[in-house]
Design brief:
mainly alpha
Length: about 70
């Protein structure tokens, strides 16, 4: 059994998915390093919650500023 494995591809599509629909991936700041957090908001309630966090953190898929906001 390998000690390290690739959980998801590290190609650009993986990053672009979040930039296209941040409400599916954004989470509370205190959960950023929580490895037990779900990988994607899938239910309608989770999407709504993600939209609230995106608004709170000023994350917008229409702006290029999210690169700075997410990758400090």
């Amino acid at each position: 059994m390998p000690i390290v494995y690739e959980a998801s591809t590290l190609q650009m599509e993986w990053c672009l998915g979040c930039h296209r629909a941040p409400e599916k991936f954004v989470r509370p700041k205190e959960k950023v390093f929580d490895m037990q957090w779900r990988a994607e908001n899938k239910s309608k309630a989770e999407i709504t919650e993600g939209q609230a966090w995106a608004k709170l953190y000023h994350v917008s898929h229409r702006s290029n500023n999210e690169l700075f906001d997410c990758h400090r």
